[in-house]
Amino acid sequence: MRIREIMSSPAVVVPPEMPVKDAAALLASHSFTCLPVVAGDGRLVGVVGEAELLENRFPPDPRLPLDKRADRDPGDVVADVMERDVLTAHPQEGVADLLTVLRSANVRSLPVVEDGVVIGVITYRDLVRALARDDGLIEADVRRRLNLCGGVGRWRATVRDGEVTIFDERRDPSDRNAAVRVAESVIGVTRCRVVETSTLGG
Predict the structure, then answer these.
(1) 162 near 129, Cβ under 8 Å?
(2) Is 171 helix (H, G, I), strand (E, B) or coil?
(3) CA atoms of 166 and 172, how far apart (whole Å)
(4) DSSP state of 12
(5) pTM for the complete prediction?
(6) Residue range 59-79: mean pLDDT, rounded
(7) What is the DSSP annotation of 47-89?
């Protein structure tokens, strides 16, 4: 499964000169956790998320005396608060690799960039949406792709809780490898196994 298949697209982006208040409103209205920041020439120059927008934005504890309060300069525009060191994803990258990157970087989303242009955003929410996909829809997609791969009737397949079982009357390893790869490319598939129908009395 590739990032392109499940990412949120088109990406909602903001310019560096956008006021922080407007960026916060955009973030809240789309229920995102961060937004790519794109310059006028289309280059990705940063990301701005909840933490960056919120830092130093709220008054301190009212019990704190005025002379004990630290000076705050939270910044007025996105460029003042954005994160400039940005991890990105490519649309052709695999979802399994993406999970590793998200975990190790401790981030919840990444801009998806192709040829220097932001074409989408991939988030944990996109991954959860794929995981929650209905088994009936997954099975229909798996069967359709297997029919295209091996011809109508070459494979039978069922899906339960995202796990695909492919039933095979033949014992051709290369065919089986191809069938598994095709099934695993379907959105919502979590695992795939092949069962010889001869072992089931078929």
Answers:
(1) no
(2) coil
(3) 13
(4) -
(5) 0.75
(6) 72
(7) EEEHHHHHTT-S---TTS-GGGSPP----SBHHHH-B-S---B
Structure tokens at 121: 């955003």
Residue 50 to residue 23: CA distance in whole angstroms: 10
Confidence of residue 58 (pLDDT cuts 50, 70, 90): low
Output the six-digit token pair for 57: 């934005």
Give pLDDT, residue 202.
Answer: 45
pLDDT surpassing 80 at residue 178: yes
Amino acid identity of 146?
A: L
CB distance 168 to 154 below 8 Å: no
Residue-wise pLDDT for 89-128, tens only, equals: 999 998 888 888 888 888 888 999 998 889 999 999 899 9
Within the chain, how many helices (H) and strands (E) appear? 8, 7
The DSSP code for 131 is H
- How far apart (Å, rounded) are the C-alpha atoms in residues 191 and 147? 19
Residue type, 183: A
Of 37, 64, 121, the C-alpha closest to 72 is 64
Place of tokens 């009395």: 201
**Tokens (6 digits) for 108:** 């919840």
Pairwise CA distance, residues 19 & 78, whole Å = 6
Rounded Cα gap, residues 109 and 32, in angstroms: 9
